[in-house]
Amino acid sequence: MKHFEPTVVAFCCTFCAQPAQSGARPKKIKQLTPVRVIKLPCMGRIDSVHVLKAFENGADTVFLAGAPQGQCRFIQGTAAAQKKIEYTRKLLKEVGIEPERLEMFTMSAAKAPPFTKAADEMTKRAMALGPSPLKKAAKKTQAA
Q: How far is CA 64 from CA 16, 51, 81, 83, in A?
């Protein structure tokens, strides 16, 4: 398989993960691949449709990042997000996309390294799994 530049999408809680991601830039913390960040008011607001659309639009891996359990400003956001991620993994498997392409990470707003570590982990997963099956299908459709 040829080398490819993976597309990694992160759905980030505005109060925790997004500040951690922003904090990585001034400290010059290097990530393997740039991550496309989509802000959410709380990671509990994620919906399977959002994740599926990210894959449909070319993501090789997707992750959700937000507050650790018990630290969510909206109380149950982390627990709600976990249930939605588990459900979405089942949907991915049913449509032939590896569920490992989707993950959830928790982190504090004050710490940039966990965001960079999560982004790098998802980049490595994308490299190991190869391009998303949806990218392959899109290329075949364009070629026809």
A: 11, 9, 8, 12
pTM over 0.85: no
Q: What is the pLDDT of residues 40-99, one digit of tens each?
A: 888 888 999 999 999 999 999 999 988 777 666 676 878 889 999 999 999 999 999 999
- CB-based contacts of 69: which residues, under 8 Å, 6+ apart? 78, 79, 106
Q: Where do the domains of the chain lie, and which CATH numbers do they carry?
A: 8-143 (3.40.50)
Beta carbons of 12 and 18 less than 8 angstroms apart: yes
- Report the greatest alpha carbon distance in the chain: 51
**Closest listed residue to residue 29, CA positions, set 125, 118, 124, 128:** 118
